[in-house]
Amino acid sequence: MASLAELAAVVETDPAAAAAILRAANSVASAPADRIGRVGEAIVRMGIEDTRSILVALMLRDASGEALERSGLDLDELWRHLIH
Q1: 36: helix, coil or strand?
Q2: Do 50 and 83 meet the contact criterion of CB atoms below 8 Å apart?
Q3: For 3-27, what is each residue's pLDDT tens digit?
């Protein structure tokens, strides 16, 4: 299993992944007292499992975005399910 530092280093190399992780950590569901600005802090707040779920969702979207859109799935609902 990757350490938090290793996971943060990987996420920081992909601007879309970093933005998604920060967005999730700063969401109403996470209810941060202060806005989180660093990926490492975001991962600590959400935990490794939720971070992995977001990264898997991003990979699925990138790998088969058109196929997912054609599937008729509610992608917003899928996203919410993956981060909770």
Answers
A1: coil
A2: yes
A3: 888 888 888 998 888 999 999 998 8
